[in-house]
Design goal:
- This protein is an alpha/beta fold.
- The protein has 2 domains: 6-194, NAD(P)-binding Rossmann-like Domain (Rossmann fold), CATH 3.40.50.720; 202-286, N-(1-d-carboxylethyl)-l-norvaline Dehydrogenase, domain 2 (Orthogonal Bundle), CATH 1.10.1040.
- The chain has 13 helices and 8 strands.
- It has helices at residues 6-9, 25-36, 48-67, 73-81, 106-117, 135-139, 173-185, 201-217, 222-232, 238-245, 247-260, 262-265, 272-278; strands at 18-21, 41-44, 83-86, 97-100, 125-128, 148-152, 162-167, 189-194.
- The chain has an 8-stranded mixed β-sheet, with helices on both faces.
- Strand 4 (97-100), helix 5 (106-117) and strand 5 (125-128) form a beta-alpha-beta unit.
- The radius of gyration is 19 Å and the shape is globular.
- The model has no long low-confidence stretch (mean pLDDT 95).
- Bound molecules: nicotinamide-adenine-dinucleotide (NAD).
- Nicotinamide-adenine-dinucleotide binds at residues 21-27, 44-47, 50, 101-104, 112, 129-131, 153-155, 245-246, 249, 253, 285.
- In the N-terminal section; belongs to the enoyl-CoA hydratase/isomerase family.
- Residues 18-196 form the 3-hydroxyacyl-CoA dehydrogenase NAD binding domain.
- Residues 198-293 form the 3-hydroxyacyl-CoA dehydrogenase C-terminal domain.
- This is enoyl-CoA hydratase.
């Protein structure tokens, strides 16, 4: 896109209103970022409590902004009113871009994307925030795969600048240009990447996390590894990072990576990550993972 410059930018469809499917860690963050940078957004979930949590998190972030003098109470109220929580597809006919951010499971994502495609106008661009799953695979569930690509944010959405825009086999230049322009409008730095398990960042990150679980299997204390990686200069160690990501999401993403790169992601049996998942210790999202949170 950079090389083609202005010509590519011209292909972008205007985005007056967006929607996000899933109001979890990522969906809530995407809704906050979109609304606070001026694009109103519908936030749909299948659970009322998820919608309430997503809104509460957005309100918390906006309050912090006001306290730090980086927004006025009026701006905060305007941004909050830009997030419209919903349990139904009622208003989806007006949306220009729909970002899917539900559980990291290809079958669930395909079903949700196909359902959403049936609810939007013909030119609406669909995007998936999947961490690892092939965009071309997800596109197989769609009637208009050319209107679909990846839009991969990082966690926490309001702080991480990068967004990977993933070009599937059938993604059109218009879909890519629209999502790139939306990412920029959301004050993010988009990079366009080709489709493969984990794309760019997780293709690097997951072998590192695999190295960590291997060390734990060999008896090394996870807290020592975290401290060491912090001393190395990283903002957090791997155990804490996995708690932030969500143990369930990490397990699903790891499985996609292991299937895609069996030579690099081979594990000799269940790991500490699997043990936490079995024990339903899902990380910060439910208060217990490698660490306990109050
Ligand atoms: P999460 O578990 O926090 O939230 C998922 C939400 O989706 C839940 O609120 C759930 O109720 C909702 N949901 C499930 N089925 C739905 C449906 N049919 N329609 C609408 N909502 C539905 O998960 P998350 O961490 O936000 O991850 C969501 C996606 O983002 C995954 O694909 C994940 O891989 C990706 N991602 C996660 C991270 C991270 O660090 N957690 C980072 C980047 C990308």
């Amino acid at each position: 896109l950079k090389r083609k410059g202005k010509a590519a930018e011209k292909l972008a469809h205007p985005v007056k209103e967006a929607a996000v499917l899933g109001a979890g860690i990522m969906g809530g963050g995407i809704a906050y970022q979109s609304a606070s940078k001026g694009t109103p957004i519908l936030m749909k979930d299948i659970r009322e409590e998820a919608l309430q949590l997503g809104l509460k998190e957005a309100a918390k972030l906006l309050t912090q902004k006001v306290e730090r003098g980086r927004a006025t109470p009026e701006e905060m109220a305007k941004a909050l009113s830009g997030i419209r929580p919903t349990l139904s597809y009622g208003d989806f006919g007006h949306t220009d871009v729909v970002i899917e951010a539900v559980v990291e499971n290809p079958k669930v994502k395909q079903a949700v994307l196909a359902e959403a495609e049936g609810q939007v106008k013909e030119g609406t661009i669909l995007a998936s925030n999947t961490s690892t799953i092939s965009i071309s695979l997800l596109a197989q569930a769609l009637k208009r795969p050319e209107h679909f690509c990846g839009m991969h944010f990082f966690n926490p959405v309001h702080r991480m600048p990068l967004v990977e825009v993933i070009r599937g086999e059938k993604s059109s230049p218009e879909a890519i240009a629209t999502v790139v322009a939306l990412a920029r409008k959301m004050d993010k730095t988009p990079i366009v990447v080709n489709d493969c398990p984990g794309f760019l960042v997780n293709r690097i990150l997951f072998p590192y996390l695999g190295g960590f679980t291997q060390l734990v299997r060999n008896g090394v204390d996870f807290q020592r590894v975290d401290k060491l990686m912090e001393r190395f200069g990283w903002p957090m160690g791997p155990a804490y990072l996995l708690d932030v990501v969500g143990i369930d999401t990490a397990v699903h993403a790891r499985d996609v990576m292991a299937a895609g790169f069996p030579d690099r992601m081979q594990e000799s049996g269940p790991s500490a990550l699997d043990a936490l998942y079995q024990a339903k210790r899902l990380g910060q999202k439910n208060g217990q993972g490698f660490y306990a949170y109050s």
